[in-house]
Specification:
single chain; alpha+beta; 12-stranded mixed sheet; two-stranded antiparallel sheet; 16 helices
């Protein structure tokens, strides 16, 4: 990028950030927003508060206070970001992607930190985990982060002293990761975001309540699930009620009829079920990769999932919900033999040519994490307080949407390159030049 292009980019960033002016009562907040985003978009090697403050020639305490103590409405900023995506990047084939990411952290003071599985390290270690909603549009050419939230383990919320020290609101209660994801989805839907499909990994796909809630919200999904999920390929007979006869405890209803087959694991169904074995494998092109076309074999069949076990009810007597009548999609890599299992609530007429690309669309959220960690410093935060970490997640999403737009513009113009803000850009194009404080 040459000098005029860099200058134009700084002007575009100023115009982009102007939409967030109403989140701040004073001009200083708008200036800090500019400084934070330009710091994240800069060529700095590390993008924590201190290097970014040095980048702009201000005391580090200034940006630390901007994250942790300044009064500004970061929830409204999320709403503005989501409404912008809904209005400017609406796509009938958009895909929403749910996933989590982790940040290794030493010590025990950072909000939410504990020894748990850390995807960044591939093992259990001290880390902070956050849940994210990604959005993919423009024929899967563009992606951004729509919403983010911290995961707070039970152990953290049980330690009220640690919560007070980290500034965790008193009303905060424990939520599983899938419950956090569901809250984020409902928020984005309320703000006008529409996705043709949702997709997510086994950690979310194996939770029947999550799948049921998505269906209740009118959302379609293709969810990867583990091979040990239980179900039937032929609808079992369910007895809803019966007259009590004889001695002993009355039977529980609804219950499986005595002649119904027991539920089976997905991998056992694939190996042994004559119903599924009669369905032929078909070859499907998924996408082009740097190694060539990605082709998988797949087959699909209706499946009836077993609901979670109820206390005091034997496994064979567990209930079946009509709402969990889904499509089972089995995909096999013909080169490696790897097998993946997916569930979808798609209507019967939706072809596999549509469902499989959605199933393999999760790389977009991984690329979001890669961009935000590698280019924007998502994992460089050193703050410890609850609101500061939440604001850092928001500000990174704001920077990422701008980065995505500029990259797409360069690609459509036949150029390739990295969007980088020059040192000093904020001195001539910062928010302070836009007029008086709100």
């Amino acid at each position: 990028m040459d000098g005029p292009e860099i200058g134009a980019l700084a002007g575009e960033l100023t115009d982009y950030l102007q939409a967030f002016d109403g989140c701040f009562a004073r001009s200083e907040g708008r200036q800090h927003l500019w400084r934070y985003t330009t710091g994240q978009l800069s060529a700095l090697e590390r993008k924590s508060v201190e290097p970014m403050a040095d980048y702009h020639g201000i005391p580090p305490r200034t940006l630390q206070d901007f994250l942790a103590t300044h009064r500004w409405d970061h929830q409204r900023a999320w709403e503005i970001l989501q409404r912008q995506v809904a209005a400017q990047h609406a796509d009938e084939q958009a895909v929403g992607v749910i996933d989590e990411t982790s940040f290794p952290k030493d010590g025990a003071k950072t909000v939410g930190v504990q020894r748990q599985y850390c995807g960044a390290l591939g093992k259990k270690d001290n880390c902070v985990v956050s849940v994210h909603v990604g959005y993919c549009w423009d024929h899967a050419q563009s992606h951004c982060t729509l919403a983010s939230d911290l995961y707070l383990p039970v152990s953290w919320l049980a330690d009220r002293e640690a919560c007070r020290e980290a500034g965790v609101p008193e009303e905060t209660v424990f939520r599983t990761k899938w419950q956090i994801a569901l809250d984020l989805i409902q928020t984005t839907l309320a703000r006008g975001v529409r996705c043709a499909w949702w997709t997510f990994d086994e950690g979310y796909g194996e939770v029947p309540a999550f799948l049921e809630m998505l269906t209740a919200l009118g959302q379609r999904y293709v969810a990867e699930v583990p091979r040990n999920v239980m179900g039937w390929l032929v609808e079992p007979t369910i007895l809803q009620r019966g007259a009590y006869q004889g001695q002993g405890r009355p039977r529980r209803y609804p219950r499986l009829a005595r002649k119904s087959l027991p539920p089976c694991r997905l991998d056992d169904l694939l190996k042994h079920s004559p119903v599924l074995r009669r369905v032929p494998w078909q070859n499907f092109y998924i996408q082009d990769t740097h190694k060539g076309p990605l082709v998988w074999q797949a087959k699909a069949h209706r499946i009836y999932l077993k609901r979670p076990a109820q206390e005091g009810v034997q496994a064979r007597r567990e209930l079946v919900s009509a709402s969990l009548e889904l499509w089972l999609i089995v995909a096999k890599n013909p080169l490696t033999g790897e097998i993946k299992y997916f569930l979808s609530n798609a209507a019967g007429g939706v072809p596999l040519e549509v469902l499989l690309p959605v199933a393999f669309c999760r790389w977009h959220i991984e690329r979001c994490f890669q961009d935000e960690k590698g280019e924007l410093g998502l994992d460089h935060f050193e703050c410890r307080r609850y609101v500061a970490v939440q604001r850092h997640l928001l500000l990174t999403a704001i920077s990422h949407l701008f980065l995505t737009r500029q990259k797409r513009r360069l690609e459509q113009g036949g150029e390739k390159g990295t969007v980088v803000m020059p040192v000093g850009a904020g001195d001539t194009h910062g928010p302070g030049q836009r007029g008086p404080a709100a």
